[in-house]
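User:
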Amino acid sequence: MKVIIFWDIYWRVWRKAFKKELSNLSNLYNPDFIIANVDNITSWRWAIEKLMLKFEKLWVDVLTWWDHIFDHENHILDYLGRDNSILLRPANFYETNYYKIPGVWYKIFSKKGKNLLVIHLLWEAFMKYNVYNPFLKAEEIISSINPNDYDWIIVDFHKETTAEGYGLWAFLDWKVSFIAWTHTHIQTNDDIILKWWTWFISDIWMVWSLDSIIGADYLSVKKRFITWINKWKIEQKLSNNYILSAVYLEIENKKCIKIEKIRINGNF
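Assistant: Predicted structure:
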């Protein structure tokens, strides 16, 4: 099984970059599944239904969505609730009989006779949510599903610091095929295979303007850097130059046998 994973496709300009490069990468790698993150897909903060439908038409199979998931929930609730939705929200929000968090937090995606289980988790350190323990939630999900129902497992673990990422990596070795830790917005050079054939990488990076500060124009954030006062409006960086980052995976018998980092410096 072959998969390409794209992370944090930022704003409308870089959606164009993703669309531009996707065809070439699909022809080069011939993936069975394409996964993308859409946390900052619309003006930094949220996904909306019309964009999700556009991604489906681009043959994207799975979309994940991190800590901005409820910033503008009225734009996405209908899509989140659909049985055929390809958008996953983090699995480990607290839920009770008083309130059920909308959306699906893990799902088996089937295509070409192959079944891919994707689990989406969130850590709470330096995040704005208090969440259920992601180690326990991952174990609960995996133990609740018949191993014959899927061919391999990908875990998207969204976090700020590294210690919990390495801890989850060791905790889930041999139980999953691949773990990507995300949110730090820099492609890391620590891709490695573990003793029992689980691969991981600390961060896949994102699709954004080459000359920006996580998508922002430098002059619009300069005062914040100098004064620590967050009252000035951040402007998005418009540019003809972009970076597209991704990873390519190959899996056999639930074991990851290959990972290749992808980085494309392009322009319009």
